[in-house]
Write a structure and sequence with these properties.
By secondary structure, this protein is mainly alpha-helical. It has 19 helices and ten strands. 24% of the residues are buried.
Length: 463
């Protein structure tokens, strides 16, 4: 509620708008001076009315100024712009980035944020130890120590509130969170640094640091559009450098090994999903969103028109494709058509066996009862599956890269490939698959040499 205090011939109106990143209450103030023709009672009544109007404007984000702190502006930006307009996946990613921004810069007034503040923030992100996802593993065998001290894993789990399976992972020298490792050390009265070591303490990647820059730039651009700032300080800063990494993919022989391996395992749905990613190059979300009406058997065409995604806040939800060019029809090879027909028969038989427990959604790939599949469940399965094979360490998304690389090796033009992949431009395709393009170019040079060199030699002999 607004607080109204009379100060001489005017009134000071203060409104609380929440708390900053340090838990300190945020206030906005307005000095209101009543017209000279109002009586004292009328002025007091009008001051209360002005306080109500000012409070409404503050709480609805209509009161903005360059003196406000970044933390205040972030909350207004979230409610007024980000939540109504951004895609859930993008919003979820931004919310993961915001805590570091608030901690580093949130206490500063918008007008005081300068390029050197941003550069210092980016430099800090590049330091070792800044990651929040560092895992730890035991460097000593903890089982004899548990036995010697007569403490069970179950007892540690019950006392700490951590799942017994997680405690077991720590004892088995698997990677666990800092909290779990610390809990085990406290229970066994061991020195943490002598018992556990970090598994991955590398600094944040250049790509992640650039995400922070893009988010800050987007927010401060909005501050400029709303008239809060005159200019965006991010425009006077060089974005963090991004390490150039070649897209991971399997070559022709490795792809054949993967197909053979996936055929040997006993989950037909996942087998079809892996093969279809290889045949079509679709994104994971596009694959999981496919419905039987998207398959045209007569034309051998698969229609990509939606995406199935998951965020912690929304769970599983259906969304549009990544961009306008992602809406596309993909011509299927004959082997993929036969695979889909066999899979449809298999699914029909499975539905009959499950009976009333099946929920009909017309999706190709589903949870056990016909409900929409969680895309993360497939990724988790593939992560575990690929590590049991004699293959490079790839993710499900790298099957898309494999599809693209094999097409490039086969001589498919960049415009045609960009269209199949749903890229906005062949330039995007060329940037992602530069290594595969170079390899194809080298192979082409060798082919030309094989063709032209014999001709040149024959001419020399004739001369």
């Amino acid at each position: 509620m607004a607080n109204v205090t009379k100060r001489g011939n005017s009134y000071l109106i203060r409104v609380s708008t929440g708390f900053d990143g340090n838990g300190k209450r945020i206030h906005k103030c307005l000095t209101w001076k009543p017209p000279s023709d109002l009586t004292p009672k009328q002025a007091e009544k009008e001051a209360k009315r002005q306080a109500m109007l000012f409070e409404e404007k503050c709480l609805s984000g209509q009161v903005l100024d360059s003196n406000m702190k970044l933390n205040e502006f972030i909350e207004i930006w979230l409610t007024s712009h980000a939540e109504p307009q951004l895609r859930p996946k993008t919003l979820d990613r931004y919310k993961q980035l915001l805590p570091r921004i608030k901690q580093a810069l949130g206490h500063m007034k918008l007008e005081k944020i300068q390029p050197h503040h941003l550069n210092l923030f980016y430099e800090n992100l590049a330091e070792e130890g800044v990651r929040e996802d560092v895992k730890y593993y035991a460097t000593v065998d903890l089982r004899p120590i548990l036995k010697e001290k007569r403490i069970t894993q179950t007892a540690i789990a019950e006392l700490s509130g951590i799942a017994v399976n997680t405690i077991a992972s720590a004892v088995s020298m698997k990677n666990v969170r800092h909290k779990t490792a610390l809990t085990v050390c406290e229970a066994l009265k061991l020195d943490f640094n002598s018992t556990f070591a970090p598994y991955n303490s590398k600094p944040l990647s250049g790509q992640t640091r650039r995400h922070y820059h893009r988010l800050l730039s987007a927010m401060l651009n909005m501050a400029v559009q709303w008239g809060v700032l005159f200019s965006n300080p991010c425009e006077r800063v060089k974005p963090p450098k991004v390490e150039i990494k070649e897209a991971k993919y399997l070559d022709e022989e490795q792809a054949a090994v993967l197909i053979e391996a996936v055929e040997a395992q006993d989950n037909f749905q996942y087998e079809v999903m892996v093969k279809l990613l290889l045949y079509t190059g679709t994104r994971r979300g596009e694959l999981c969103a496919l419905q039987w009406c998207d398959i045209d058997y007569k034309k051998s065409v698969l229609s990509v028109n939606k995406s199935l995604l998951h965020t912690p806040s929304l769970g599983i939800y259906l969304d549009t494709t990544k961009n306008a060019t992602s809406y596309r029809d993909i011509k299927l090879p004959l082997v993929a058509v036969h695979l889909l027909k066999d899979y449809q028969k298999w699914q029909d038989n499975y539905k009959r066996e499950l009976g009333s427990k099946w929920t009909e959604n017309n999706y190709l790939f589903t949870a056990w009862n016909g409900e929409r599949i969680n895309p993360n469940s497939f990724s988790k399965w593939f992560y575990d599956f690929i590590r049991k094979q004699d293959l490079p360490d790839i993710s499900a998304h790298h099957l898309r890269h494999t599809n693209a690389s094999l097409q490039i090796a086969g001589g498919v033009s960049l415009p045609a490939l960009a269209k199949r992949l749903g890229h906005s431009s062949p330039v995007t395709t060329s940037k992602i698959y530069s290594h595969a393009i170079r390899s194809a170019d080298e192979a082409a040079a060798e082919v030309l040499q094989d063709i032209l060199a014999p001709m040149s030699n024959r001419k020399k002999k004739q001369a």
